[in-house]
Design brief:
By secondary structure, the chain is an alpha+beta fold. The protein contains 16 helices and 23 strands. A seven-stranded antiparallel sheet has the order 17-16-15-14-18-19-20, covered by helices on one side. Strands 2, 3, 4, 6 and 7 form a five-stranded antiparallel sheet that branches.
Length: about 650
């Protein structure tokens, strides 16, 4: 939405007339003369624009102008006779109330302020958004020592107007820190970085990962007064990981102030030692991995075409051991069962890493957990890593499997090993579970073999946070694989000590895992909003076809149990409540009438996009475009909220009509 030139000039003319009417120019001249007399008489310093604005503000002139330039008139609530139309934007009458934060004086805090951005050149040509206009936004997400923060969304611009402050607790009891006040030397040993992820949300609600950055905050320990300003250059992700996307101005401050700061030499020496130690560990692991791979190839020459993944690139293009992407993750009270965890992971959006140009090649990008969660969508590897971490948190022996699906498409999924030897595959993109029963190729032809229901064809390796196994069985076909991981003739293991040296928590090369956040979505409100939008879309669509629309609210309500049963079945694999639903529908549909229903499932909340998808189904189109006698339509939407504001959206369209032969 943008104003046409004639409207813009008309608005400027109105403002100009108002300023002339108030004689604002004359009052500014008086204030300017008075300020020059008071401020510049002693020493003839330069009078800046800031000084003049400050003087105008002190004398209340700016406030007077703003009061006169209100475009929204007050309306007394009691005088309203009809419900007001929802406004596209609003004018805040009251100043925003800042939330107070309780600061424990016996704790150390790092106050991180983001004071704007610059050089986001991709948005150089972007026009200023008008009030109420929907525009693309930037959101900055932070994680530090089990604490997560999110900035207010700001419009995308070459110089985005970030102005947010985050109070980060440096030492916490929950992380095993003592109760005494920590000094600068102790904080210097805390090597956890502040992980910052920048997300762009477009006008349709689609999210894009813009940048992922690990901020070294300990430079503030050597700063005067415990305050330092840092210009952080953000680099792109994936194929653009060497390209600058913009700069953030950041101010770091310690609370309470340090009694004694460290010298820059001490902090720089500490950083250099940590880098050297990490580099040496990574070098030794690389030497070991090369030796392991040589031994693996010597077992059988065909092993060189198996999908044995030892390293993977993260969003910043950094090669990291695959085991470092896994960590036992406990969801607190947000998820109650492993199957619920699988359902949660499956409703996070799926999108392959973007590739610039054609060729059909797959761009590899295994995201860090924070980047995946903040963006709310990722590739199959991101889903499998998160599901494996959650299942480990629930006490299961879980592994990520790397292999292929039909037509040789690379894929990852999750496997759990039961104490009784049962092998279960978990598809992280759908939440489906499959029991693996291996086929014995040596059995006689008459012996009936189990038919695999899973879509997986080959498997090259399995791994978790502590173990890595390469498949060295004669065939890598999943259906004939035996998952006895203790049998080294079938699975070649990597040294647990070697994996621990580079993948254990606390090593600076492994980003700390963030905790999961509760959903901010009100499921009932969102369900009502989507349902109302769908009713409007259906009515408009039928109107275009020359059909009237009559809604049956009672029938719409009766569809609720079916939607709840569908979600329960997706989560637990148990179907329940179908008899009651069918009985209620039979009672609601009179004799001689026909009932049709069409349920569909989405993981996004865009009603228009969902409606367009529904119309592509001939069954759904038949219901929406139903013709006949006494046609009554019904639609029911049920949103199920999950952690990280992920959601499962179930929609059911239905109709009943009198059958005329």
């Amino acid at each position: 939405m943008s104003l046409p030139p004639e409207k813009a000039s008309e608005l400027k003319q109105i403002i100009h007339q108002q300023l002339v009417k108030m004689d604002v120019h004359g009052r500014i001249r008086e204030v300017l003369a008075e300020t020059i007399r008071e401020e510049l008489a002693p020493e003839h310093q330069q009078l800046s624009t800031e000084d003049l604005i400050k003087a105008l503000r002190q004398r209340g002139i700016i406030d007077d102008v703003m009061k006169e330039l209100k475009f929204v008139t007050d309306v007394n609530e009691k005088e309203r006779t009809s419900a007001p139309k929802p406004s596209t934007h609003f004018v805040a009458r009251e100043p925003p109330v800042l939330k107070r934060t309780n600061i424990d004086p016996t704790r150390r805090y790092l106050y991180l302020q983001v004071l704007g951005g610059k050089a986001f050149l991709e948005h150089l040509q972007e026009p200023e958004p008008l009030p109420g206009q929907i525009c693309s936004t930037f959101t900055l997400c932070l994680h530090f020592r089990n604490q997560r923060f999110r900035s207010k969304p700001v419009p995308c611009a070459c110089e985005p107007d970030f102005h947010d402050g985050f109070l980060l607790e440096v030492h916490k009891d929950s992380l095993g820190d003592g109760s005494k006040m920590v000094d600068a030397t102790t904080m210097l040993s805390i090597c956890d970085p502040v992980h910052m992820v920048l997300i762009k949300t477009d006008t349709f609600g689609e999210t894009t990962l813009v940048a992922s950055y690990f901020l070294e905050w300990r430079s503030v320990l050597a700063a005067e007064n415990g305050i330092t300003n840092v210009a952080v250059e953000l680099l792109g992700v994936g194929t653009e990981s060497k390209v600058s996307v913009g700069v953030l101005n950041i101010r770091l401050e310690m609370y309470p102030q340090l009694n004694k700061t460290l010298s820059p030499e001490i902090t720089n020496t500490q950083f250099a030692l940590e880098r050297q130690k990490t580099a040496e560990k990574e070098r030794l692991f690389l030497v070991y991995a090369k030796q392991w791979w040589r031994e693996y190839l010597q077992i059988r020459p065909t092993h060189n075409i198996r999908l044995v993944k030892i390293f993977a690139q993260d969003e910043n293009g950094v090669n990291r051991p695959v085991c470092s992407y896994i960590r036992p993750l406990r969801a607190g009270r947000l998820l109650d069962t492993p199957r619920q965890a699988a359902r949660f992971v499956s409703v996070l959006g799926y999108e392959r890493a973007p590739v610039i140009g054609g060729g059909g090649g797959k761009q590899e990008q295994w995201c860090t957990l924070l980047a995946f969660l903040c963006r709310n969508q990722g590739d199959c590897e991101d889903h499998a890593n998160l599901l494996c971490s959650l299942l480990l948190g629930f006490g299961l022996e879980a592994f990520v499997c790397v292999g292929t699906k039909a037509k040789g498409v690379p894929h990852t999924w999750v496997m759990t090993c039961g104490t009784d030897g049962t092998i279960t595959f978990w598809e992280s993109l759908t939440g489906h579970r499959y029991i693996h029963r291996p086929i014995n190729p040596d059995d006689p032809p008459l012996v009936e073999q189990p038919k695999p229901l899973y879509p997986y064809r080959t498997i090259g390796c399995v791994f978790n946070h502590q173990k890595f196994f390469g498949n060295c069985q004669p065939s890598d076909a999943v259906e004939v694989c035996v998952f006895d991981l203790h049998d080294e003739s079938k699975w070649k293991p990597m040294s647990g000590e070697a994996i621990k040296s580079v993948c254990s928590p606390g090593t600076s090369s492994v980003p700390p895992f963030p905790p999961l956040c509760a959903s901010t979505i009100d499921a009932a409100v969102t369900s009502n909003e989507i349902e109302l939008q769908l009713r409007i879309l259906v009515s408009e669509h039928r109107k275009d076809l020359g059909l009237s629309t009559v809604w049956d609210d009672h029938l719409s309500y009766l569809l609720s149990p079916a939607l709840a049963a569908y979600e329960l079945e997706r989560t637990t694999s148990i179907s329940a409540g179908n008899e009651e639903f069918q009985d209620a529908v039979r009672r609601a549909v009179p004799d001689g009438h026909t009932f049709k229903g069409f349920p569909i499932h989405f993981v996004y909340r865009n009603a228009r996009r969902a409606f367009a998808t529904c119309l592509r189904s001939p069954f759904c189109e038949e219901i929406i475009c139903c013709r006949g006698d006494q046609v009554r339509l019904a639609v029911r939407v049920r949103v199920f909220a999950y952690p990280e504001s992920a959601c499962a959206v179930w929609i059911m369209f239905a109709c009943k009509y009198c059958s005329v032969l």
